């Protein structure tokens, strides 16, 4: 009998996770399958019951259940507990254990593209303060990066991320206008909102006129691959980091937690890019 993996969420019919995790299964040369278990909030109890009964080996969790799923778990990883969100569940010794691999996957994707970037003394700007920003902020703090500012429309929401910092983390909460005015001070700018995602491809959260030379601009949106903010970054002489690579590496981290197998997946980043570009 092979591994049984899956994804719960709603809606998830267009998810790329089955394509990605099937690639991982083939790379690892193990028997297994990865299926979608879609259910509306009214159907979630039945989905959970079904996964329990089939003794699924592990599953991913996406919106709108990253917080709700915690009520159904037996154990919670310390970081997932601090973040208040789970995207990966592992069956271990008959118990469901919850983890968050989003931030960890993001950091790994940056390291693969820019191995020397994430140093302690760089200055980082996070755009947005939602669930993705929380995971990324926490993982950057764990990389011992001390200067990480947060810009958001709601300053209160941005301030909620401060509970994730360490004593030596320096973080200012800014408006988007203030972020634009101070843009030249940042080495890495990370766009974590859904702004610029299809079909609203002309939207952009801030302008980059004041960007630092040789800065890196990262956008976690991956449809389209080249968002408007990334195009402007390149036009202004900055480097870019595409969002689909985060998807690959958070999935790789989940697969490793399920199987104990650490795969080399960098080539799949290129393959997914071609797939998203329709090549």
From TrEMBL:
Pfam families: SDH_C, Shikimate_DH, Shikimate_dh_N. Residues 121-220 form the Quinate/shikimate 5-dehydrogenase/glutamyl-tRNA reductase domain. It comes from the Bacteria. The active site is at 66 (proton acceptor). Shikimate binds at residues 15-17, 62, 87, 102, 222, 250. It catalyses: shikimate + NADP(+) = 3-dehydroshikimate + NADPH + H(+). The keyword Transmembrane helix does not apply. One of its GO terms (molecular function) is shikimate 3-dehydrogenase (NADP+) activity. InterPro entries: Aminoacid_DH-like_N_sf, NAD(P)-bd_dom_sf, SDH_C, Shikimate_DH, Shikimate_DH-bd_N, Shikimate_DH_fam, Shikm_DH/Glu-tRNA_Rdtase. Residues 7-89 form the Shikimate dehydrogenase substrate binding N-terminal domain. NADP(+) binds at residues 128-132, 220, 243. Pathway: Metabolic intermediate biosynthesis; chorismate biosynthesis; chorismate from D-erythrose 4-phosphate and phosphoenolpyruvate: step 4/7. Keywords: Amino-acid biosynthesis, Aromatic amino acid biosynthesis, NADP, Oxidoreductase. Its EC number is 1.1.1.25. Homodimer. Involved in the biosynthesis of the chorismate, which leads to the biosynthesis of aromatic amino acids. Catalyzes the reversible NADPH linked reduction of 3-dehydroshikimate (DHSA) to yield shikimate (SA). This is Shikimate dehydrogenase (NADP(+)). It comes from Gracilibacillus marinus. The gene is aroE.
């Amino acid at each position: 009998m092979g591994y049984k993996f899956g994804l719960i969420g709603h809606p998830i019919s267009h998810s790329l996770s089955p394509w990605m995790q099937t690639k991982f299964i083939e790379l690892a040369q193990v028997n297994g399958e990865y299926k979608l278990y879609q259910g509306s909030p009214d159907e979630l109890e039945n989905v959970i019951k079904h996964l329990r009964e089939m003794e699924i080996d592990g599953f991913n969790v996406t919106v709108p259940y990253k917080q709700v799923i915690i009520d159904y778990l037996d154990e919670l990883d310390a970081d997932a507990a601090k973040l208040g969100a789970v995207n990966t569940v592992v069956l271990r010794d008959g118990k469901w254990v919850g983890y968050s691999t989003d931030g960890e996957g993001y950091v790994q994707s940056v390291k693969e593209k820019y191995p020397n970037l994430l140093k302690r003394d760089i200055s980082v700007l996070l755009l947005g303060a939602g669930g993705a920003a929380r995971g990324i902020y926490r993982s950057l703090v764990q990389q011992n990066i001390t200067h990480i500012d947060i810009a958001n429309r709601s300053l209160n929401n941005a301030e909620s991320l401060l509970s994730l910092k360490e004593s030596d983390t320096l973080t200012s909460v800014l408006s988007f206008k203030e972020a634009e005015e101070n843009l030249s001070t940042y080495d890495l700018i990370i766009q974590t909102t859904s702004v610029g995602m299809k079909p609203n491809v002309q939207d952009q959260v801030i302008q980059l006129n004041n960007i630092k030379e040789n800065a890196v601009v990262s956008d976690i949106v991956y449809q389209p691959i080249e968002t408007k903010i990334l195009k402007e970054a390149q036009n202004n002489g900055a480097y870019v980091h595409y969002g689909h690579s985060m998807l690959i590496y958070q999935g790789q981290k989940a697969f490793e937690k399920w199987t104990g197998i650490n795969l080399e997946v960098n080539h799949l980043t290129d393959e997914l890019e071609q797939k998203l570009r329709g090549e």
